[in-house]
Amino acid sequence: MPLELPSTRKLALPALMVLLVLVVTGCQGGAEDFDGFKITSSYTLRAGEQRAGDQVILAGTIVLEAGSVVDGDITLMGEKVTLNGEVRGEAIALADRLTVGEGAHITGDLTVCAKNLERSDVARIDGQVREECNQGGRASVANAINSGWESWRGSTLFRMGAVITGSLFFGALSALLTAILPRPLVRMSESIYRAPVVAGGVGILTMLAAIGLTVVYGVSLLLILPLVLLPLVIIAWLVIGALSVLGWVALAGPFGVALLRRAGLEGQPCMVAAAIGGVALSLLLRVWSVFWFTAWIGLLATALLGAIGLGAVLLTRAGTRPYPRRDAVPGR
Predict the structure, then answer these.
(1) Which residues of the chain have a pLDDT value below 70?
(2) What SS3 state is found at 160?
(3) Rounded Cα distance, 309 and 314, in Å
(4) Residue 155 and residue 290: Cα distance in Å, rounded?
(5) Burial of 226 (0-12, 13-18, 19+ CB in 10 A)
(6) Local structure of residue 229 (DSSP, 8 states)
(7) Where do the domains of the chain lie?
(8) Cα 102 vs. chain centroid, distance in angstroms?
(9) Which residues of 249-282 are buried (b: 16+ CB within 10 A; e: fewer)?
(10) Which residues contact 159 (CB under 8 A, 6 or more apart)?
(11) 97 to 80, 114, 127, 129, 210: CA distances (angstroms)
(12) Cα(251)–Cα(233) distance, rounded to whole angstroms?
């Protein structure tokens, strides 16, 4: 069933602005929900206060007072850092001046990257103390940030927030492209509806060919062949990436129409359907990545649907012509 185009494009800009406001609001709300991540001018965890879960704190001055408790790993990045509380996990500190007070108790390892380190003799560190600094004595920012990132990204809450934020962004992108390219996206969506198997086959073959040619080119570099083709390889992958984005947006439209139909809200503009479909489709595919043992499901579904979308873009020549042609469809 062909998708209907919006009756008026005057709704496009206001609706898009509303959607972008919702995305920004959602991202801000999600950031507030990540209690383990703080960016501020100064931060103090006072005596008697407790924070649960892994913490990442970026501030000019950071103080963990004696009697404060962090029940999890913590990463501290600031100019002046005073660690005088209890950390029930590993601690990573990147600072110009780090003070580990007499009230400090770290049950795990302490990784330090600091120009000046003052450590009390009575501070309790159950694990090892590692100084990740270069020969000049200056802090290795990359090492500390990478260590903190590895610790923080393991949080299920963070991964769920990334899924939600990414889905909102894709919904906004789907609405924007649908407002700019309504008719080409309708042709791509109709191609997916009429010939999903053919579109998927073309998409898979295209990706396999691109990967194969890239591998061959990579092997040719070992033979010290000229690098003159490198820009062409990069441009080719950028083009494939752009076409893949169009394919995903083409998938979002029909998915949103189906959701609206089930909700009894037929007849909505294509831009609205694309936005809703983009958010819902992205959530359904990305939510599997929250847990490592289900990540393969999301990867497999993403590969199959992405191939169908890419194939539809190629078969319709980026939406410039329908596929299959209307005169080739039986009964027409």
Answers:
(1) 1-36, 132-157, 221-228, 292, 326-332
(2) helix
(3) 9
(4) 9
(5) exposed
(6) T
(7) 33-152, 156-328
(8) 41
(9) bbbbbbbbbebbeeeeeeebbbbbbbbbbbbbbb
(10) 153, 289, 290
(11) 5, 6, 21, 16, 51
(12) 27
How far, CA to CA in Å, does 95 sit from each of 30, 35, 116, 210, 321? 28, 22, 8, 45, 59
Determine contact, residues 133/116, Cβ cutoff 8 Å.
Answer: no
pLDDT of residue 88: 93
The C-alpha atoms of residue 258 and residue 1 are separated, in whole angstroms, by 11
Tokens of 95: 């600072």
The string of pLDDT tens digits covering residues 189-242 is 889 888 889 998 999 999 999 888 888 877 776 665 556 677 787 888 888 888
| CA–CA gap between residue 112 and residue 100 (Å, rounded) | 10
DSSP letter at 6 equals: P
CA distance 176 to 248: 13
Tell me which residue has tokens 């007499």: 102
Q: Do residues 73 and 91 lie in contact, with contact meaning Cβ atoms separated by under 8 Å?
A: yes
Token digits of residue 164: 């939600």
Run of H or E including 100: strand 91-100
What distance in Å separates the CA atoms of residue 190 and residue 196, rounded to the nearest whole number? 10
DSSP code, position 168: H
- Report the distance separating Cα 176 and Cα 76, nearest Å: 39
pLDDT in tens, 159-197: 777 888 888 898 898 889 888 988 988 899 889 888 889
